[in-house]
Amino acid sequence: MNADPHLTPKKKRMTLQASLPLIGVGVGILLIIGPFLAGLIRSLLLWVGNDPQVSLANYSWLLTDTRIRTAALNSLICGLGAMSVSLVLGTSLAWIVSRTNVPGRETLRTLNLIPFFFSPYVGAIGWIFLIAPYSGLMQTSLGSLLGVSFEGPNIYSLAGVIWILSLFYTPYVYLFVISPLQRMDAAFEDAARVHGASFWTTIRLVTLPLLQPGLLSAALIVFVTSAGLFDVPLALTATKGIRTMPTEVFALVRYPSDLGRAAAFGIFITAITIVLTLWQRAHLSKRRYEIISGKGYKPRVIELRTTGTLIALAIEVLYLLTSVVLPVLALVLVALSPLWTGRFNPATATLANFSYVLFDYSLTRQAILNSLFLAVTGATLGVMLSGLQSYYLIRVRSGFKSFIDAILALPLGIPGIVLSLFFLIFAIRTPLYGTLAILLIAYIARFFPFATRTISAMLSAIHPELEESARANGATWAQTMRFVLLPLLRPALIAAWIMLFIIFIRELGASILLYASGTETISIAMLLLSENSVGYVAALALIQLVLLLTGFSLFRLTKVSAIQ
Amino acid sequence: MRQDAPDDFVTIRNVTKKFGEFRALDGLSFSVREGGTLALLGPSGCGKTTMLRCLAGLETPEEGFISIAGKVVFDSAKGINLNPEDRGLGVVFQSYAVWPHMSVVENVEFPLRVRGVAPAERRARAMEILEIVGLTAFASRSATQLSGGQQQRVALARALVHKPALVLFDEALSNLDAQLREHMRLELQALQDRLGFTALYVTHDQGEALGLAETIILMNAGQIEASGPARQVFMTHHSSFAARFFGLNVVETARLAAPHAIAGKPFIAFQREYVRISEGVTGPGSDDLVLLGTIATRSFQGLADEYAIDLGNDVSVRVLDRSGAFSPGQAVSIAISRKDLFLLDA
Ligand SMILES: Nc1ncnc2c1ncn2[C@@H]1O[C@H](COP(=O)(O)OP(=O)(O)OP(=O)(O)O)[C@@H](O)[C@H]1O
Ligand SMILES: [Mg+2]
């Protein structure tokens, strides 16, 4: 019996089963730890003449420099501001479409998500065209109507940054609370009402506290993402000398270049995000409870009276106008004008800007191709990597799982520009520098956790018995994956792919330090052209939006929630 | 307008509730005396919960009149519709709805808190009621760390703490196991004696209704099928629906081999227990209805065997017998005394 012919191949398959998920996890950890270590080491080095010395000088500079303090404070203001506004707005929108009989709520439910797929950078550009002091469309059209010229609100300010960030991060909150709002056992609220609580008291004492876990997660994500977002402050305040942490990192790398200080600053930012993430994990694990009971009624739908309907519709319409319709309208008008003067002249409207950036201008043509290549390749590789990691996190038995899970989730909070700074330090003296490959690697490293979340959530809902029965019926592990698990997981894989595609198409923060001549992306091209060719910028922005909305439509088709 | 009888504490008149075109409640009227207990009984989907929610103000009927303790809380004719919080009730929900983000005592003192009772006093009153339901030791626990039975006590304490005059129970006992259920039933009665509230129970379980309530309303498809004192509703049957609901055999007379034996009514009904089986074909006794059939199945039920007996013509009845003497396939005759037979019109 010692010459069993089945023994050898079986052993090999076991190895495949054990090794593939491990490879996924290993690559993920390398992608995070590698650049982080490079950044850490660089931050501890100081060049004296030609000799590097280990020193804490960069950190002590960090603690004393007022620029850093100002930037940190500005980021804090942006983060808290955007967080507060989007919490209120996102919860209100979710409540309106899930708990009231507002007309068209099915459609509104989808429309509210569009800004989620938009690029905040493009939104900022659109809003500049809309209300730049004196020259914005609002000012010029209102001005010619009233016969005066006026300045209007100053979009080039922290308030402007908060405004744009709030518009585009509201859907995060919305996504986090709409499902608990829809599925919460109505008896929780009913019990409060019948025992004496008014409508508003019930919302304050029961509904909102029950939503707290979702609200907290959303608040943290919005805060961290807003505070770490590079492109909106760059577009709105960088030229006015108001810097936030990410634009300060950029300034440290560029004017004048001091990678050591930049790295120290990056490590500092990373440390903050790690602390925040750990705190959230600890807090959430304490407060996990079920708010959906098996039997029970769907939440009651509030029958709005006329005033209520008008208020609800006004909130919806204002939100969709300011986040989508108005900025897009401004972009369209600018893109159609041969020379933008703050006024749109239908007589001279032309598609020349589009044909120029699409076909004639090598920079933009190449940028579009680069972005598409990065998005398609990156999403594909990212989903493969995340699929393997999810398999490890959900299916493989291991004592380190929660630790590995925490590590793999780290990039969620690290600003793109910080991660790409680490990659820059990592790659600057290698042939990778200045290639599309380094952009691709940085993109995947920064964003694979989104895909891993989506896929893990679905995988944990698939009962292992489905795979076990395939194995019991004689399928190998590879066959089981191919014929059972992957088909079952397909919706999540597609959703994760589309999500990565969308993120990569619009990404600026992770690209800005790593691009070189020939590897520009759409967002980089917009940035490069923003000084003098607003028509091309608008046309490029619209082309990018079309790509993003294609992703959005596909996303609706797959019907998998973006945030699990 | 008709004057309500002076002892009507809760009055429900002509309440109709529609969901779209579907009439969940179809002109329901009944009343409860002060300190009384009434059970709304009926099969799943007959509208019991809907009626309870209309009473609590959680659902708005299209039509009707509801008054509680002399206060009109709903009147479609006058456009009166009080908010749930203004009706001053206590409600025990089927899913308990114990708030997971509050501790046990916070849950219980909630009705006092929203009524503006000072913290010290409301804590004292909540502890008092927690003592009555036997949960003092759990007061500071998170509500999520309780068993189903304990959660129900919390829900009960919460419904009673503000001393409401009327307490509504939706399937109060159905999620509990048999032992706990009996225990809670006795406890509820003791509580009611002690606190003196009026109680309205909603249940699909006849045992629960009979054990808890002095008055029973049997509902069918949004209408009242039978009502009255519990014993009377259980003992007298006026419709095949009621008879079937209480587990009686209901047989269409036209399908029987000897229809002449039953004077002209379309249905007869009888309890499983009140049937005598005998072997083979025996002649009729003095005043019995005798039917011939074949034993189809036999199942052991502890004290007795339950037989399904095939009477031919697609008629099958269930019979309890303690002799253990019969087996499937056997030809038997069954006899039912005239006094145990209900003759039904519909
Ligand atoms: N919000 C609603 N929308 C539409 N139909 C409803 C709604 N609530 C209840 N119904 C319908 O009204 C009928 C009565 O429902 P109800 O919950 O009152 O039944 P029930 O007697 O309490 O049943 P159960 O014993 O199963 O709890 C059912 O047919 C139900 O489907
Ligand atoms: Mg019910």
Spell out the blueprint of helices and strands.
The complex is a heterodimer of chains A (564) and B (346).
Chain A (H helix, E strand, L loop, with lengths): L6 H37 L1 E4 L2 E4 L2 H8 L1 H34 L5 H7 L2 H4 L2 H12 L5 H10 L11 H26 L2 H9 L4 H30 L2 H6 L8 H10 L4 H28 L19 H31 L15 H9 L1 H34 L5 H9 L6 H12 L8 H26 L2 H9 L4 H30 L15 H8 L4 H25 L6
Antiparallel strand pairs in A: 1-2
Helix pairs in contact in A: 1-13, 1-16, 1-18, 2-13, 3-4, 3-8, 3-10, 3-12, 6-8, 6-14, 8-10, 9-10, 10-13, 12-13, 13-18, 14-23, 15-16, 15-23, 16-19, 16-21, 16-22, 18-19, 19-21, 20-21, 21-23, 22-23
Chain B lengths: L7 E12 L2 E12 L3 E5 L6 H9 L6 E6 L2 E5 L4 E2 L8 E3 L11 H10 L5 H14 L15 H13 L5 E5 L7 H18 L2 E6 L2 H7 L2 E6 L2 E7 H6 L4 H6 L3 E4 L14 E4 L5 E4 L8 E13 L4 E8 L2 E7 L9 E7 L4 E3 L2
Parallel strand pairs in B: 3-9, 3-10, 7-8, 8-9
Antiparallel strand pairs in B: 1-2, 1-4, 4-5, 5-6, 10-11, 12-13, 13-19, 14-18, 15-16, 15-18, 16-17
Describe the structure in your own words.
The complex is a heterodimer of chains A (564) and B (346). A two-stranded antiparallel ribbon of chain A has the order 1-2. The radius of gyration of chain A is 25 Å and the shape is globular. In chain A, 47% of the residues are buried. Chain A has 23 helices and 2 strands. With 564 residues, chain A is an all-alpha fold. In chain B, helix 2 packs across helix 3 and helix 2 packs parallel to helix 4. Chain B has 2 domains: 232 residues, Rossmann fold; 98 residues, Nucleic acid-binding proteins (OB fold (Dihydrolipoamide Acetyltransferase, E2P)). In chain B, 24% of the residues lie in helices and 34% in strands. Chain B has 346 residues and is an alpha+beta fold. Chain B starts with 7 loop residues before the first strand and ends with a strand. A 6-stranded mixed sheet of chain B has the order 7-8-9-3-10-11, with helices on both faces. At the A-B interface, helix 9 and helix 10 of A face helix 4 of B. Bound molecules: adenosine-5'-triphosphate (ATP) and magnesium ion. Magnesium ion binds next to helix 1 of chain B.
